[in-house]
Amino acid sequence: MTVVHPNLEDTEAKMSARDVSVFYGDKQAIDNVSIDIPTKYVTAFIGPSGCGKSTFLRTLNRMNDTIPSARVEGEILLDGDDIYRSKMDVVQLRARVGMVFQKPNPFPKSIYENIAYGPRIHGLAEGKQELDAIVETSLQRAGLWNEVKDRLDDSGTALSGGQQQRLCIARAIAVDPEVILMDEPCSALDPIATAKIEELIDELNGRYAIVIVTHSMQQAARVSQRTAFFHLGKMVEYGRTSDIFTNPLEERTKDYITGRYG
Amino acid sequence: MSVTILLLLALGLGLAGWLAGRARAWSFRRSAGAGALAALPSYHAWYVALWIVVPMVVFIAAWSVIGPQLVSQHVLASPAAADLPAFGFKRESLLAEARAVATGAAPAVFNDGARALVEPYREAIGRYQTIGIVVALLLGFLGGAWSFLRIKPDFTARTRVERTVMVILLLASLVAILTTLGIFVSLVFETVRFFGMVNPIDFLFGLHWGPDPMANPDNPDPSRYGAIPLFWGTIFIGAIIAMIVAIPLGLMSAIYLTQYADPRLRSWVKPALEILAGVPTVVYGYFAALTVAPFIRDLALALGASNPSSESALAAGLVMGVMIIPFVSSMADDSIAAVPQAMRDGSLAMGATTSETIRRVLVPAALPGIVAGVMLAISRAIGETMIVVMAASTAANLSANPLEAMTTVTVQIVAMLTGEGSFDHPATLSAFALGFVLFLVTLGLNFVALRVVKRFREAYE
Ligand SMILES: Nc1ncnc2c1ncn2[C@@H]1O[C@H](COP(=O)(O)OP(=O)(O)O)[C@@H](O)[C@H]1O
Ligand SMILES: [Mg+2]
């Protein structure tokens, strides 16, 4: 069972998972996970690779629906509504819960078109001017505006890896989501680009609920206020990041964060 | 006949050399020990065999080309040849007849003029045949003896055999390229001859096509050699009507197969589509001529067209479009499948539906590959002959009405080559000029398409 640290009472839950299990065919990848994702904080998922962090993250915006063999049990609430109920509009859900992937995946379109993609799909802008404004704010919030404002028509794939990842964050921001899910967003980047992304996460913190999967404990310690430790499909321990790193209650958590395995 | 015998002889000698070489290598090995030989005995055997067979085969091939020329030179130099007409068809046919009788292919002479030439032919053929056999055998023996003597314990037969094999493989791969080159050169040659008779400007820009193979070949009427109606017919049938059918259907089937179809269904439908590409085009031709064309004519009649043609551009184009579907769909399928899954995920995660993702991300990203596929398909369609020969007509109409009969470049190539004109008549030669234009256009299309595909591949590593 999950050990949940005390003193999480200031947590106002944006999303809550209740007894969530995920199966790929017959294989169980997530076993009975329950967690509250806070509104105002950054939550980090850590754990050895293959323990189900990505799988669980993908249940939060139903990206698992795109994998035919995947099946989700349990309940996931967004502002109290079950996102797996049959009436849930997945298009709407994914506008509210955005996602950034491990490898930067800008579309092979211009920088402008990459950002305009979401607003266009969801009909968020009335005219060209409004769209321009959305593109500019999104790029500004992603800290990319100054670097690309003179070449919005260049291809998004021509940017450097770190810029591409910030472009993907800007793309997610453009539809004004409430939650942003990030699956190891820095694992394909060099240390400087990584530092920029971490800085960006800090700035976005508070405006959006952010969930970040990371294999770097330092990164979790730097950017998050809540940490959940996953192991073999189970969530072992969950609490304030400072508590998890200084005072883990579970032996497996302690072993992992002291680097004894994993 | 004698070539076959000579080749068999070469193989026989080669076998003998192989055995001799191996025996010699074995004898070294027996006397000096297994480690003393730089290569296995079989490599020495192959070395000797190659040195016998290769020179002989090369010589036989060359001689089968050069020999007959030497023979006719010999015959023409004989006193009997003095009575021959100086040029033209008559002279050629007399010579051919005499040769046929001399080799025994024909029983007796019909033309008296040929009778006197039979004996010189017989004599020349006999002489050069003997020379050929003697030289071939000599080469075989020389090669065999030389290589046989080179076999020593430290002789590196293996590397030499390997290198020779490599050269032979290289030559084999050059055959296709050289053949293409040869075709091209002969096309150019005949085309230049044609353009000596008909001005290229008249040919390329003239609006009326109706060469008369019976007209005086020395003074062709250039206004009958305007190929624009053919180019138009080709483009209208192959690049417009056929593509209106093939592009949407091919693209949609590719999208369905890559994005929606259950893997089990895909494993059935995809091969079925590809089988479509293997149907002989003459079968499509039947279908176009016997089913589609009459149907279109009846339809046009029912819709009030007066006297519609039974051969229409529409029938040929529609069936050709169906024939082309597999080309478009398999190229589009490959390019869409080559777009990284990450693009698809990225779009879906933005809240796009599957069809929005296809329309806005996958197809634009795959576009270069799709365009290249379409270009390859066009180049196939405009070079396609059987369907249009059977379903289009030979009437060169310059019209935008798809119900009218039209003709294409390929149809006219067939018509001109099989027509009644003699071989050097401009009407016949026009087939080469048409072929040359077709060759250049399809080559250009393929070249551009392959470049596009290559750059597309590089874009996604
Ligand atoms: N599409 C899939 N199909 C089948 N099994 C999968 C799939 N994706 C992940 N898995 C399995 O689920 C488990 C958890 O994977 P994942 O969530 O990617 O782990 P993590 O992100 O923590 O490294 C692994 O055992 C993995 O092999
Ligand atoms: Mg993962």
TrEMBL record, chain A:
Keyword terms, alphabetized: ATP-binding, Nucleotide-binding, Phosphate transport, Transport
Annotated Pfam families: ABC_tran
GO MF entries: ATP binding
Gene3D superfamilies per record: P-loop containing nucleotide triphosphate hydrolases
Highest taxon above the source species: Bacteria
Domain spans labelled ABC transporter: 15-257
InterPro entries associated with the record: AAA+_ATPase, ABC_transporter-like_ATP-bd, ABC_transporter-like_CS, P-loop_NTPase, PstB-like
PANTHER family from the UniProt entry: ABC TRANSPORTER I FAMILY MEMBER 17
NCBIfam families cross-referenced by the UniProt entry: 3a0107s01c2 (TIGR00972)
Stated name of the protein: Phosphate ABC transporter ATP-binding protein
UniProtKB/TrEMBL annotation, chain B:
Alphabetically ordered keywords of this record: Cell inner membrane, Cell membrane, Membrane, Phosphate transport, Transmembrane, Transmembrane helix, Transport
Residue ranges annotated for the ABC transmembrane type-1 domain, each copy included: 232-449
Spans through the membrane: 44-66, 131-149, 164-185, 230-251, 272-296, 316-340, 361-382, 431-453
A Pfam family: BPD_transp_1
InterPro entries cross-referenced by the UniProt entry: MetI-like, MetI-like_sf, Phosphate_PstC, PstC_N
Subcellular location: Cell inner membrane; Cell membrane
Database matches in CDD domains: TM_PBP2
Domain of life per record: Bacteria
Membrane topology of the entry: Multi-pass membrane protein
NCBIfam families in the cross-refs: phosphate_pstC (TIGR02138)
Biological role stated in the UniProt entry: Part of the binding-protein-dependent transport system for phosphate; probably responsible for the translocation of the substrate across the membrane.
Similarity comment: family membership: Belongs to the binding-protein-dependent transport system permease family. CysTW subfamily.
Name listed for the protein in its UniProt record: Phosphate transport system permease protein
